[in-house]
Amino acid sequence: MPMSGDLLRLADAVLFPGFAGHEPPDWLRRRLGEGLAGVALFSRNIAGPAQVARLTSALRAENPSVLVGVDEESGEVTRLEAATGSSRPGAYALGVVDDVAMTETLAADLGADLARAGITIDFAPSADVNSNPDNPVIGLRSFGADPALVSRHARAFVRGLQSAGVAACVKHFPGHGDTTVDSHHGVPEMAADTVEDALLPFADAVREGVKAVMTGHLLVPSYDGELPATLSPKVLTGLLREELGFQGVIITDAIEMAAVAAAYGIGGASARAIAAGADAICVGGEHADEATATGIRDAIAAAVTQGLLPEDRLADAARRVRELAAWTASSGSPSDVVLAGAAGDGGAGLVAARRAVRVVRRSTTPALPLAAAPHVVELVPEMNLAIDRHTPWGVGEPLAGLLPGTVVTRMAAGETTGPALERLLGAAAGRPLVVVVRDAHRHPWQEEALRHLLSARKDAVVVEMGLPARSDLGAVHIATYGSARVCGQAAAEILAGSL
Prior knowledge:
The structure is a single chain. This protein is of the alpha/beta class and 499 residues long. The protein has 2 domains: 332 residues, TIM Barrel; 140 residues, Glycoside hydrolase family 3 C-terminal domain (Rossmann fold), CATH 3.40.50. 41% of the residues lie in helices and 11% in strands. Strand 5, helix 7 and strand 6 form a beta-alpha-beta unit. Helix 5 packs parallel to helix 6 and helix 13 packs across helix 16. The chain is elongated. The N and C termini lie far apart (69 Å).
């Protein structure tokens, strides 16, 4: 059976490709005019709010029903503020504060920003229960390790976003929190005894009326011992549709990730995902070109002609995507969304970041605030692919604004040799020393550098901007539970005594 134009258009009606540049390329304009469902924006597409609004307006000129999606979780995973760092803390910090009303307010404010920019679906929040502190890809993107806490904040985030007319998309179903493998590179596996806890936030989000669910590329042997969730009818149709009763759009995590594409190719994984029960394919984090988008479309259409994908399943997927587009079009303007509780000293995001900081004093030396401009050492790990590596973070820059004369040294893996650290200690002599780390427990080189520095400087302050495994490091230990710009600002205020 040949691939007709109608079949190719039907395949396009379930695709969310990425693309390069601040303006839509010609191929994307053409495909949108032919019925392409939507697009996924990344930081490479974003220069500022006004530019994004122009971009999304240009997309709608080609297809008024286009769905425009973005990974805007706030905190570590930000696209709109990738150049500056997020003005809102991430999920873990919100979980530490555990003020559900605040989480909903921040999500509503975020939704208003997205809606003003013309973005209609946010691939957030992460509803993963981060029960494994060694998780390399979730961590601070989760609201915490307690399923009930994650559930109540995921629901609040969904309410906030959707009150602004932006569809929320909980991820990574059925739960990526208790894994040690990053699905960008391999296939994580969910232990049977964690499934019930992992599912709770998703089940509650479904009851809350979440419009979309993003699949995780992980193996769930208690449901399917062979296929990762994204490709498993037992997980997507049997569990999510039938057991949990979800009727909205199921969209895949980036389909080019190795956990699914390594075995089947990008096109083959896409066709299998639709056959399993997914309604939309997200692609383009790493393959943002016309050839990839065309290859996926053709592979889905070919799967229909070969009898591997029933055409009515593909048509049902396209219908769900159209219904979501209709909801976003009729959901109203966010102009009446008011940021309740915003403070004149930086807004609700900074207020939330301040509330999340935890300080443990083990010594009266040094006293806080710092008595002089310090030497700040920031140990910089390599981040996972979900986090834009160019997004600025740290304490040194905001602290220099509060304590002029602050010196900042940034060091990556391989640079923290003994001689280099000794030179640093010499340069810091006579100044307070502040050591900033990020997930130190997951990076042996950071732990070793900390040991070296703290053995020489018992008075040093440690600021942990990742997930803290311990709070007994340094004379003072400050945990921000996030590396967003506002988290660095909140820590700097404590160090400088301006809070």
